[in-house]
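User: Predict the complex with magnesium ion.
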Amino acid sequence: MDLIATAIKGTNDVLPSEAYKWHYIEKTVAQTAALFGFQEIRTPVFEKTELFERSVGDTTDVVQKEMYTFNDKGGRSITLRPEGTAGAVRAVLEHGLFNDALPVRAYYITSCYRYEKPQAGRLREFHQFGVECVGAPLPAADAEIILLGRMVLDRLGIGNVTLQINSIGCPKCRANYTAALKSYFSAYKEQLCDTCLSRLDRNPMRILDCKSPVCKEIAAGAPVILDYLCDECKEHFEAVKGYLQVAGVDYIVNPHIVRGLDYYTKTVFEFTCDQLGAQTAVCAGGRYDGLAEELGGPHLPSLGFAMGLERVLMLMEKQNLPFEEPAVPDVYIAPMGEAAAEQAMKLCASLRAEGFSALTDLSGRGLKAQMKYAAKIRAKYALVLGDNELTQGKANLKNMATGAQVEIELPHGLVSAVYDANIQTAFDDLNDTLEKFDKQS
Ligand code: ATP
Ligand code: MG
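Assistant: Here is the predicted structure with magnesium ion placed in the model:
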């Protein structure tokens, strides 16, 4: 094959045979979000570049190195969303949702775009499940958001995940801390990477998040924010930890978590797993009390998280976890000849009208090849339609799993036979289950 184009590096195709895994994950996250009162928000895939510069922060890796930014034909600078929070909060503000009952609880399942070096679990187009809780200042909100993340992972069955939490304080405590960082990192000016050198004056906290091995090593000895928290932030953090203990959620305090986005304040957290290759975070989030104001809105203490769905999928596959099986076709009709093909079309239509999935030949294959195809797509039942069947007005409905056949009257007997056969199968399954149960007890 000599394709004129292949997929762009760092992007993934989800093929029909794999889509059910995504459906299962998406359904589970949406249902869990609903248990906590979250409703879906959908925002555009692109936004004005300033939105991300202001919210994510113009000294972050995301803004400095990773954004897909371009000028549209009108000369406006546009960016493909690198994350979901900025767009969601922009929409909440723009539509005045904060005038209704607070907090606003919104979740999204969305694609994100970052120009990164592709590797396992790190893509240029990836997908996030995210939640945003806008207008919730209490520490109970921090705990609730963390519990939601934990519950999603639990419901999917993902094990081996550690919750790490930290507090990075508010602008008040940040001032003293920033000064301490500046004086610490100033001693290493010669060794810091160029990006971090430029961050030293503007935003030294960002150096703590640098991925370069040298900067990482230097950062390991830096002062930690927990020693600089103001009383209010300290109290808030203690309360969050208290709620987590009450809820029976294990965590470790990791004073080195600072998160890669500028808008965070107070609580930050990550769910990490060492089965993810070079990266470890499957879900990350925190509080962003200043973001709404930064974007020109009112003061709205808020928080949220984002979960990388490719990483969720990767963990589920590594841990051999079950996905809800995709539905298989109910009936495959194998017609032999023109007249039978017309009849097959009609029969398919009547089955579909009753909610059964029905397929027939679209490729001009012989009978043997058609039956092979029916087995391959795992059709539950198959029906052969030839001249004999048409003249006699009767055909055999074959159960593909057992080989059992029932004779049906054409055309009206088919739908009821499929109904009956389905009920019989359900009944047999139930009997099987009961028998197993009897044997166990
Ligand atoms: P990392 O440390 O892995 O670069 P991050 O701090 O940049 O992550 P966030 O911006 O907090 O990540 O995004 C939240 C989640 O989205 C991450 O925990 C991860 O699961 C997922 N994620 C982030 N970047 C990517 C990517 N390039 N490919 C796939 N998933 C990603
Ligand atoms: Mg990153």
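The chain has a mean pLDDT of 94.
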